[in-house]
Design goal:
mainly beta; about 15% helix; 16-stranded antiparallel beta barrel; globular; 2 domains
């Protein structure tokens, strides 16, 4: 039989071992929880495919009666990868129409091939990047697959180009951006020795209400030609139930030609009538200095609805009217059903 002292020592040793195991288990649990918390907050590398297809069926009326058919307007296919720590890369192919071949063939272009880095309020982009001239207005309009925004519709600039851009958010109510690109768009290689410079400021005085100011200078690279200047002023208000916006745009020396100015405005609005349905309307008005471009100057209006069929598909029936400003030109009327698939 063991002495009482020995029994007590053995019992005490067992208690210490048990306490040690409990403490170790607790520490391991804390470490495990901490590691999981770090995993949650850490930005993991990940990628996603980019697929966007825009098509329509349209038919004209009156003077445009023979303008009808099914049309595959544009398709985007690409991939975007987030490496973590604010670094990401994106490559997108653009398959669309080309007026140089009478729109009978599909032409493929590289729309984006870019690297981005974000840190706090700072964003840097380089490569074949999206330009900042009308990107903000296009997103605010929100129906790019139905109709391009004013500047894109009337060729005031390109939506992508080769170069660099930087943006910084100083506070919730103000941000600024600058861009330097070749100035010839993403469909052409650079053949003019000049750059396109742009500066923009975005203001948000109150929640939902935003003002955008942009100025740009596209160098001609030729002393015998004039530089192209661009000015854009936009204001819009976005609510859960409706959106309204208006913009004024002015381009000096279009095509690097002296006094070949173009200017105009666009106003639009949309109302959410159901979780899956919107109604939208827009009016554009394009002018040219001394009517030098009177053959293409016009006012245009669109009225329609959008229906979301699930997460990836949108269908938008709409009615359009074109009002040319050339003497004797007839108004054009057409009906469209635009379709979009994308993720």
């Amino acid at each position: 039989m063991k002495p009482a002292a020995d029994t007590f020592a053995v019992s005490n040793l067992k208690d210490r071992k048990m306490k040690t195991k409990v403490i170790l288990a607790g520490l391991l649990a804390c470490i495990s929880i901490g590691a999981k918390a770090q995993d949650v907050t850490k930005e993991e590398p990940k990628g996603k495919a980019i697929v966007q297809v825009m098509a329509n069926f349209h038919t004209g009326f009156g003077a445009d009666n023979e303008n009808r058919g099914f049309e595959l307007e544009r398709s985007y296919f690409g991939y975007e990868y987030n490496f973590g720590n604010g670094l990401s890369a994106k490559a997108v192919m653009d398959i669309g129409k080309s007026s140089s071949v009478d729109d009978y063939q599909r032409i493929a272009y590289v729309k984006n091939a870019m690297v981005s880095w974000k840190k706090g309020g700072l964003t840097l982009n380089g490569g074949l990047i999206s330009t900042t001239q009308f990107n903000f207005q296009e997103k605010f309009w929100g129906y790019r697959y139905i109709m391009k925004s004013f500047q894109d519709q009337y060729k005031f600039g390109s939506s992508a180009d080769l170069g660099i851009s930087v943006a910084y958010k100083f506070a919730d109510w103000i941000s600024a951006d600058a861009i330097i690109v070749n100035g010839e768009g993403y469909k052409k290689i650079q053949k003019i020795d000049g750059f396109n410079y742009g500066l923009g400021v975005t203001l948000t005085p109150v929640k939902g209400f935003q003002i955008r100011l942009y100025g740009g200078l596209n160098e001609s690279g030729d002393k015998s030609k004039r530089c192209i200047g661009n000015l854009a002023v936009f204001a819009g208000y976005k609510h859960d139930k409706f959106t309204i916006g208006a913009e004024y745009n002015h381009m000096w020396n279009a095509g690097y030609t002296n006094d070949a100015d173009q200017y105009g405005y666009s106003v639009f609005a949309s109302v959410k009538v159901a979780k899956f349905a919107d109604i939208y309307a827009r009016f554009d008005d394009l002018y040219s200095n001394d009517d030098w471009n009177i053959a293409k100057d016009e006012a245009a209006a669109i009225l329609g609805a959008q229906f979301k069929l699930g997460k990836y598909v949108k269908i938008a029936p709409n009615f359009r009217m074109s009002m040319p400003k050339a003497a004797g030109a007839k108004y054009g009327y057409s009906a469209y059903i635009n379709c979009y698939f994308g993720f």
